[in-house]
Design goal:
The chain has a 5-stranded mixed sheet. It contains 3 helices and 5 strands. It has one domain: RelE-like (YaeB-like fold), CATH 3.30.2310. It is α+β, with helices and mostly antiparallel strands and about 100 residues long.
């Protein structure tokens, strides 16, 4: 599987804490060898992130990607990086 990155993903990655960047590099090496390694907790998402998969970077940080098929290979296109809370918290009604 080929790994590619959205420019917005790279921008967020460069601003992340050094520990998050280090963990991501370790996880992406693991992902390249075996995208289904249990440590990654790789799974499909639904609702607003339907079509994306998520892997664990730390206990709190996630990297979201879309799989795109080409004639030769499959590309994991990483598009979103963030904490679980930032990505998945339910939006509260501001009028409440």
């Amino acid at each position: 599987m080929i790994v590619a990155y959205d420019p917005a993903f790279l921008k967020k990655f460069k601003k992340a804490d050094v520990r998050i960047r280090k963990s991501f590099k370790e996880r992406i090496l693991l992902f390249s060898k075996n995208p289904n390694d249990l440590i990654l907790n790789n799974h499909k998402l639904r609702d607003e992130y339907k079509g994306y998969n998520s892997i664990d970077i730390t206990s709190d940080w996630r990297a979201l990607y879309i799989e795109k098929s080409t004639k030769e290979d499959t590309v994991a296109y990483f598009a979103i990086l963030g904490t679980h809370d930032h990505l998945f918290r339910k939006r509260k009604n501001l009028n409440s």
